[in-house]
């Protein structure tokens, strides 16, 4: 089935705004991974006195939604203060695009997270924030997984209480995700998003994501992130 996009999404895909890279940028951040299909890099220039984002650019490795959401996110961010942009969320960007298919809401999450990561880097460079040491534990993983969206509902797998089990054993992470009656077709999409999100923790060497149906039976190829 062909994915239906709004006219605004199409416009931002065919004529994206703020594409490129700022030379001598004040901050740079990359979110996502080309191995999983979507990646964005943002560069910022911020006025140190007013904290207004004077310029923001992006480079994309991904689909039409990836490009469109990044384009819209930069349009919304330019001219705003960093505090205003820190209140952005994926829903705001998606609504400004006239909506996104539920299977593409993760692109909006990626765009917003990328912008906020760049802002964080700028704050650190200005002494306004400190680099946070990532604690490799269940609470950190649960926090990270709030950005993973169920394509069927458009809601986080954490807020939907789909994640039933998280365990950290040294550099190995185990996660179990329970699907609803109509979620099975999105199993691999969810697995990839969970794996990619946890991979951002440099302390992790191995990730095992088990996708279970309502009766807790493991779906085909659910043994680990390599499908073995």
From TrEMBL:
Annotated ranges, domain MIP18 family-like: 138-207
Gene3D superfamilies xref list: 3.90.1010.10, Fe-S cluster assembly (FSCA)
InterPro entries per UniProt: FSCA_dom_sf (IPR034904), MIP18-like (IPR002744), NIF_FeS_clus_asmbl_NifU_N (IPR002871)
Pfam families membership: FeS_assembly_P, NifU_N
Superkingdom of this protein's organism: Bacteria
Domain (NIF system FeS cluster assembly NifU N-terminal) ranges: 5-124
PANTHER family: IRON-SULFUR CLUSTER ASSEMBLY ENZYME NIFU HOMOLOG
Protein name: Iron-sulfur cluster assembly scaffold protein
Source organism phylogeny: Bacteria, Pseudomonadati, Bacteria division LCP-89
